Amino acid sequence: MEEINSIEVVPCTESDYLKPFTVHYNQNGTKKSWDFMRTHDSVSVLIFNTTSHCFILVKQFRPAVYMCEWEKSKVQPPTSAEKPEEGAATASESQEGQSATEGESGSQWPPASAGVTYELCAGLVDKPDLSLEEIARQEVLEECGYDVPASKLKKITSYRSGVGVTGAQQTMFYAEVSEDNHVAQSTGYFELQLISLENVNGELADGECCDGSRSPSDGRCTRDECDTYLKVCLKEYQMEVATTGQCTFGVGSTQVLGGNTFSFKSTKGKIEETGKILIPFDFSWLRTYTLIVEAWDWDNDTRNDDVELLIERNIHTGMINPGDQWQTIPHDGPVARLMYRIRVRCDENYYGNTCTKLCVPRDDKFGHYRCDPSGALVCLDGWMGPYCTKAICKQGCNVLHGGCSVPGECRCKFGWQGQFCDDCMIHPGCVHGMCNLPWECKCERNWGGLLCDKDLNYCGRHQPCINKGICMNTAPDEYHCACPPGYSGKNCQIAEHSCVSNPCANGGTCREAPDGFECLCPPGWEGQTCANNLDDCASSPCAQGGTCIDLEEGFECVCPPQWEGKTCQIDANECAGKPCVNSRSCKNLIGGYHCDCFRGWSGLKCDINIRGCRGQCQNGGTCKGGPRAYHCFCPPGFVGAHCEIQRNKCDSGPCQNGGQCHAALDSFVCECPTEFAGPLCEMPNWSPSDACDPNPCENDARCHSMDQDFYCACPEGYEGKACERLKESCITAPCEVIDSCTVAVSSNDSAGVQRISSNVCGPRGRCISHPAGNFTCVCDQGFSGLYCHENINDCISSPCENSGTCIDGINSFQCFCPDGWEGRLCDINVNECRHNPCKNGGSCVDLVNDFYCECADNWKGKTCHSRESQCDETTCSNGGTCYDQGDAFHCACLPEWGGNTCNTAKNSTCASSPCLNSGTCVGAGDTFTCICKEGWEGSTCEKNTDDCNPHPCYNSGICVDGVNWFRCECAPGFAGPDCRININECQSSPCAYGATCVDEINGFRCLCPNGRTGVRCQEFIGVGKTCHYAGLQFPHGSHWDEECNSCHCINGKVQCTKVLCGRRPCLLHSDQDQRPQSCPAGRECLKHSYMTCFSPPCHQWGVCSMAGPSPPQTNTKCQPNSDHLDNSCGRITLVFNRDKIPQGITVENICYELRYLPDTRNLAKDHELLLLCELSQSNQDAVEVALSFRPEDLPNHNLIHETASAIVGSLSKRHNSTVMLAVIEVKVETQVMPPSVDYMVPLLCVVFCLLCLLCVVVCVWWTRKRRKERERNAQSASDDSVNNQWEPLRRVVGSEQQLKESNKEAEQERKKLMGTSYRTCDDGEEETETEGELEEDCGGAEAGVQLVYKYSKTAVQSSGGVICTLHSSSSPLKAPHRTSSYSSKDNRWKNVSAVLTGQKDHRDHCV
């Protein structure tokens, strides 16, 4: 808002811009006078910004306009010539502090906006040494901030302005600018903040004191301190810095900041804003810079001229990226020590390493985008292009012949039509022609003339000659019949002996007549030869407006809804269907019904609200309310007060030659008389003779005789009615070739198309096209890679010396030198002695990034400035400690610093390699700067630049982002570098047998001739009966859609798929929303409360009313969010990305789209398919879909599994549905069927195992039998030599194996003596037993266990061992087995002490 105050009007006595004159002259003898002013000529510039697509005007305050507005207010301001009365005040005094600002209603002055104008950029021609173009250029730069070369200014015209007063000449120019030319506004600023300054001695750079003279005693400057302030010079990067010259980037300074020593760092570490300098820049930040920081003394009493004198100068070169991080730079100079920090920041809405990337979010006609953190434009959904101004049209929309202003539409240009604007319009009046370009009329075969209306094959098309006459074409639409003997006439219709050939058909009787013959036809037939079936509908048998359909054996009446019966004479009870909506009752009438409406309702069904407009108009009509009533504006195809009547396509009478028209969906069907055929009954029928005799087909094609026609089944490679010509490999002229190097765009020239570069090789390469859409890129010097996207690294040879950092450029490099080095390769040592820092006759010795002073005459210190000590506060830098060593000093540095004065950092900030992805690190102070390779960005080059933003791919192509390149992966059916080419699948002529091919997205559709069907019209179905469905006729072989199902007519029978469509979602109509309703004709959109909102708001959705009675409720166990699964039930879980879902989507919308998928309906041919959807209970971003077939007794789960796979496959395809494109995950659940079991295999396995077991048993039995026989033989031999008495057992010495072998027979004897529940064991040590017996410990016998001693020849005793046996007390001890030679006298103990080896008294009871 402008602020204008202190207004005062004074006379203009002298001006450099206006000079008034009066001219006297005679005009046609009349003496006249005229006042005029001489002014400067001027220039004006019409500026158009190609970035924002708008014209630029200048807004400024014009005093002349403001004063004209003041004059209208009738307020007289005081002038300087008029003295105010005593006590009065001048205008300026009386309005002191009062401004003519906007909104001051109480002020006597008009608001400031009254003087603000919007005008072209303009200026005076007041520089005689400059051309008009140069003056215009300066005005554009000064007023608008755009630097436009004078050569880019285009002169429009010159004219005289103000012809009544000035007559000055103004020259107008035109200029186009972009944001790249915008230099007037600051894009960023360089920021320097002083932290501290230490000038211990209070000296100047030349060694003098800032104020006063030195003290005679110690030579110090003690009279006063320096008045220190800073000057900053920022310029381009210089390898050898010059302290003089222009500061090209900018300058800055401070006020006096303090004395000799001061610091702006607080105890909390915060730095005050006092020592801050901002240097704005309005150019592309180069990242490299040279910074000269100087400390100056404001006044100096030691100088008479009171000039400003230098205290210290610091020269710093480096590289820095814009950002919020500070970079601290210390400087330890000969006189003073400085510490400051710097950073570069971009202005608001400017981004990037150069602060030139401008991004201001907007959503208007000049752009639809937002800005990401890096400043890149991110297009809003549905938009693309460099500035997101191009709407993404409907997928497949021809980019040359169609376009869109809003996303998702496809508007055709003049001369083009069709769903995708790829069908040209033929010339008006063209009858049998086609076109490749608009308004052409290229005749079909056998047609000629300007409008292709001349039949060049009248004989072949009409067959006019009868009675086997031979027809010959003589001229367009002319013919001659060569008649056989006995016939004459134009068409050989006159028979000289007419009845000889029995011309009467169907039992008719022939009778000679003067002009030939006549036939007496039997009942039901008529015509000259009794060949025509009598029209049973001629007598109009259908009453009450019914439509009569003639059949071969009678007729059929299609009755109006109010009537029924054979001839529509029975009154139907309309009240049975409850047609009345808001009524008390319904009364059936003859031919109709009457509704007794409630008050406030009217209409046939009582569905018209007399008081309101809501719900009055049907079929998508728009209701407009008036003062007395309302009026319905009907959409195309509907008429009536409420748009309730669908306009009949038969009203125009399209059927010719007496054909009867029947309305069918959005078209019509002609029922032709028998003597005519064709879509409009325009062709005479063939003669009753066989059309295939003789065979009219060529190239060995098979002929099929059809009703009144013939059809030739052409072999592969041939086409035409008679298969007479070779099939063309390409139907377009010329054949469409995919060229990856160029793309076709529309133009305004005569051709309408121009080809521009596809930019597939980027800005650094040249594309060379190859066959089959391939290409190669020839790269510019310095670049390589498939897309010329890689900058060849010129630093690979490490050309920079002395630890210099090499920065790769385009076919070049640049070295950034460490402190102390300079030159192109950092090979020149900076001479720190060039400014003679040593005082008092000291001699300077140059070091690397340092110097050393050899002092004379007992002077001390780093610069020979002290008499007292070698050390002071500034001797050692960076926290180093100075030690005075008499004639020298020594600095003890902190661990991270080195050098004579601790001025060299040991560890670089780049030592950890912080820059990623081959970025180059440049260390500076306590921070670093990363120079990223092309394709990477971020503070550490961690982010891959999104080359896919804004989206470059058309037709739902997926952009693959690489490093400094991108590639478009096209959706099926599209090709080209940016997927804008819709592949013409009809180019290869895939349709056979003369069918017409219609190109579609990723496919084609064949319009088959009569008698053929199939994808390529390869199946011959002949001629069949028409189908009657929903009161309409459909020809044999036709297909149509019935809501979510597909129907097919086969010889009079209708076959439809069986998907249960459910209630159709629709958009509720409102007075503000004029969009058409989405319900079919005759239905209205109703509110419904059962809808589940998935992406709010969803209040605008309703459901379409039912055409008839409501279908019965479907009861099924297969529900979403349930665990039920069987052979006819499955579940699919769709997980969505919420960010990609449009607003206002319900779960029912998603289910509706699934039901209408072509793959879904194709699998529901034999069983009804039901799809139910609900919001997932476990994931709010998911929708569960239940699939079930009816009846629910399928033998296996193959059908439900195939259906689920088909739906998942459809979702994986790219299509226009933005809802389904948001699906990111699909989960399928079907019943897992156990594998079928074959019982023969396990049965055979069991039998085999039993046989093996039997063999083992037999072997064991045989082995035991043989062993027993051997034992009996051995026992009988032992009984002869042993008297069964105890003998002392000697210790067996030998291997364990020999012991086992020798004791086998004794062990068998022990087993026969002991029962099965007995086990032998050793009292103290383990006993080894054969036959795998278990071991027990006798010493720990439990209660109820008896200790039994047993004779055993196989026992192996140890010293002091006891042989025992344990058995349970609950079972009696079995009696020992005795042989036949047993004697009680022998059954006693003998020499027990010898057996027990040393146990003298053993008193246990033994058996």
TrEMBL record:
Domain (DSL) ranges: 344-388
EGF-like domain mapped to chain residues: 455-493, 495-531, 533-569, 571-607, 609-644, 646-682, 688-724, 749-789, 791-827, 829-865, 867-903, 906-942, 944-980, 982-1018
Residue pairs linked by disulfide bridges in the UniProt entry: 346-355, 359-371, 379-388, 483-492, 521-530, 559-568, 597-606, 613-623, 634-643, 672-681, 714-723, 779-788, 817-826, 855-864, 893-902, 932-941, 970-979, 1008-1017
Keywords attached to this entry: Calcium, Cytoplasm, Developmental protein, Disulfide bond, EGF-like domain, Glycoprotein, Hydrolase, Magnesium, Membrane, Notch signaling pathway, Repeat, Signal, Transmembrane, Transmembrane helix
Biased composition (Basic and acidic residues): 1298-1312
Localization annotation: Cytoplasm; Membrane
One of the GO biological process terms: exocrine pancreas development
Bias type Polar residues, positions: 91-110, 1367-1384
Domain Nudix hydrolase: 38-217
Comp. bias intervals (Acidic residues): 1323-1337
The protein, known as: Delta-like protein
Gene giving rise to this polypeptide: jag2b
